[in-house]
Amino acid sequence: MKHLLAIKDLDKSEIVDLIDLAAKIKANPVKYSVSLKGKSLVMIFQKTSTRTRLSFEIGMTQLGGHAAFLDWKDSNFAVGNIFDEVKCIGRYSDLVMARVYSHCNVERMAEVAGVPVINGLSDLEHPCQILADLMTIKEKKGDFDGLKLAFIGDGNNVCNSLIAGCSVLGISISVAAPKGYEPNRGIVEATMDTGLLELTNDPKEAVKGADIVYTDTWVSLGQEAEAEERLRVFRPYRLNSSLVPDGALVMHCLPAHRGYEITNEVIDGPSSIVFEQSENRLHMQKAIMLRLLGRA
Known about the structure:
This protein is an alpha/beta fold. The protein contains eleven helices and nine strands. Strands 7-6-5-8-9 form a five-stranded parallel sheet. The protein has a four-stranded parallel sheet with strand order 2-1-3-4, sandwiched between helices. Helix 1 packs across helix 11, helix 5 (127-141) packs across helix 6 and helix 5 crosses helix 11.
């Protein structure tokens, strides 16, 4: 694993290895407290962040290394050539993590950085989130065999990475999205031959028999101009108690817009594992950095 740009680039053994390593780190963090001593991570943010920034920054510190925050708009990324900027950053650091609008930007960074590049989020995929989610599912369910996950809402980057991750691990996934808001065609086409993916426009159909129900915001950063139309189109996809099957776990990658894509009773209810997901971001980011730097 030279870089982590997309879930679709990982095979089953690599995903399982990261989940197992993250679980070991979670169980005994002190064992890894100097594993990246003397190493530096540069974190480039074109989009705002809470969990991605904190999990990487605190994670790197807890591994004995150093993390440097770089805001895209307050740096020369706003005026300079992306190749030039990243070439310099690669000469200063051991790892680069970038949270960007366009996936092509993390791909371009990986071409020239000279060090491993991590996709902290792009318009195509959110691999770090989904690896932590898969870790959380394994913690709660013990295994992936025979599971069904239903994703309700926008076929966005989180949905794309879930489709890719579930298909690799053998988890059935049913996606309910409105027409025109379906997941990425390339990822769907690459997954269809597994027989694990079902696409529908009906959320009630998608959640039938689901062990896990997952949702995400209807209006992502950069889509504010579409907010009014999106709120209208997605209203039937709100995750409320009547939509969640008995015994199903509830997931959301956060930030949540309570009362829109998910109700308070669901996100705060006994079936919610939303904040376990959030915690596991920290342990998974550590595993990713250790694996990319060969320090696991």
